[in-house]
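Table S2 (continued). Query chain:
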Amino acid sequence: MPQGMVSLAFFANPARFMAVSRWLAPILGLCAALALIVGLKMSLGAPDDYQQGDTVKIFFVHVPAALTGMFAYACLAAASFFGLVFRHSLADAAAKACAPIGAAFTGLALITGSLWGRPMWGAWWVWDARLTSVLVLFLLYLGYMALHAALDDEAKAARAAAILALVGAINLPIIHYSVVWWNSLHQGETIFAGKLAPVYLGPFLVMWVGYTLLFIALWLVRTRTEVWRRRAGAQALAAAT
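Corresponding output:
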């Protein structure tokens, strides 16, 4: 068996996952809290922008939230793929657990984007390509959760939701390249193009690390909860029969 498949099998074992995540989740949660505290302090201490004034500080909340929402959907799609192709129960549980967290980060990105857009563009919302594609991402999360809740058969719900998640993954490159492909009110690429001033880059990176660690910690906790819920359901069904 290839080494990559051996590693995947090692971490995909439900019992091993529960044992490792039991101590890993609180450690990541603590690291996330420390990073966010430091990041917020650095963000509030960053100088005002010469054009945007102090509203530029919304950047440190908005952009990491948007990137984490996209990262969460990539994790959702990956877990859905393994659950759909390999019929792995832990992958299904991880995908289901991921959706509400990703939706929360994406919702935060939309809200903070509106708060930032109002003083910059004079409007809370415009049907800009970047904004619209992020809204579609949020609706994909809601659709995934609604589809899971609509079907009583858990296996069928997981398969249907996994297909939706995989189809929706095409939206991720659209979000990333939307400011390149279409005329956009949204500012162009600055972070990955190396255009962000160092005085803003430091606080942004710390906040992004904090958001990412928070997402992973919450994902582990929710996946553990979903595994326990399924175990309890299986035991109740066995006791009833």
